[in-house]
Design a protein that fits this description.
This protein is mostly helical. The chain has a domain at about 100-275: Four Helix Bundle (Hemerythrin (Met), subunit A), CATH 1.20.120. It has helices spanning about 5-10, 85-95, 95-100, 105-125, 145-160, 180-185, 195-215, 245-275, and strands at about 75, 80. The protein has a two-stranded antiparallel sheet with strand order 1-2. α1 (about 5-10) packs across α3 (about 95-100), α4 packs parallel to α8 (about 245-275) and α5 packs antiparallel against α8 (about 245-275).
């Protein structure tokens, strides 16, 4: 495995700065110990989403087409640690992930350029689709439009609020599923909003421009600085606890992962339409 990738993946994560999925608080109280064991149970087709499975052990299983997608820090299958292979494949197929987390500003800019180009290619394809397809969910994940709206929300939080001190959030932004209710109540978000593609893209392109500008104006030394504390009236509550570099990497990382999810699910939607 390339040494640069090993270094980069030490801080590589799917979630927000300072929090990995392995350590994030559970959305509900922990399941009692006696309810954490399933024996002789058929879990075919089971769906686990936004769950903490650190230390979990699955033994004596029969599984075909098992899919595991998440922030994995060690995965042993039949006595073999498969994570080195997974990371090696990711490094080979997606070098931009290593660039995002390397800590180098030029790497971060290059990683964003790759992610940005991927989104632009997808957007050109999406423009020719029936807009109804962009509202469809696959396996209860975000629809394509919800994905874009979530990325606007993330940019409002980690770029405009943390780095620029802006206090407004777009009304149709989509917060992450684990958002604490007391924090969500502080945000001027309309949960019933369902804007059309043109409106979503107008805001989306504006927020993309914010990231472009911040990366262009950043300096290597500035990445280690902490933004000023903001009023505790939005998300994240503690804006000064993250560095400028963490905020920028958070958004580029979110852009990479959600492009992956969006294109994966769009392929399913398009296949479904073709088969109708």
């Amino acid at each position: 495995m390339p040494e640069a990738w090993q270094t980069a993946t030490a801080g590589w994560r799917m979630s927000v700065p300072g929090t990995s999925v392995a350590t994030m608080p559970a959305a509900t109280p922990p399941v009692p110990e006696f309810e954490r064991r399933w024996t002789n149970v058929d879990l075919s087709g089971a769906r686990f989403h936004n769950v903490v499975l650190s230390g979990a052990k699955i033994t004596g299983v029969w599984a075909r087409d098992l899919v595991v997608d998440g922030d994995l820090r060690g995965l042993t299958v039949n006595g073999i640690d498969v994570m080195p292979y997974v990371e090696q494949r990711l490094a080979a197929e997606h070098p931009e992930l290593g660039q995002i987390w390397s800590g180098d500003l030029d790497d971060l800019r290059a990683g964003w350029a790759t992610v940005r180009a991927a989104w632009e290619s997808t957007e050109a394809e999406v423009a020719a689709l029936d807009e109804a397809m962009l509202h469809e969910r696959v396996d209860d994940e975000y629809s394509y439009l919800e994905t874009l709206r979530h990325l606007v929300f993330a940019s409002d939080a980690w770029l405009r609020r943390c780095l620029l001190g802006e206090t407004d959030f777009w009304y149709a932004g989509v917060p992450h599923d684990e958002m604490e209710p007391e924090v969500l109540e502080l945000l001027p978000i309309d949960a019933a909003a369902d804007p059309a593609l043109d409106e979503v893209m107008a805001v989306r392109l504006d927020r993309r421009g914010v990231l472009d500008r911040l990366l262009a104006e950043a300096t290597p030394d500035a990445l280690a600085e902490h933004p000023p504390a903001r009023e505790r009236n939005g998300y994240p509550l503690d804006t000064s606890g993250r560095t400028v570099g963490e905020c920028l990497r958070c958004i580029v990382n979110e852009e990479w992962w959600h492009h992956r999810y969006a294109t994966r699910d769009l392929a399913v939607v398009r296949q479904g339409v073709a088969e109708r």
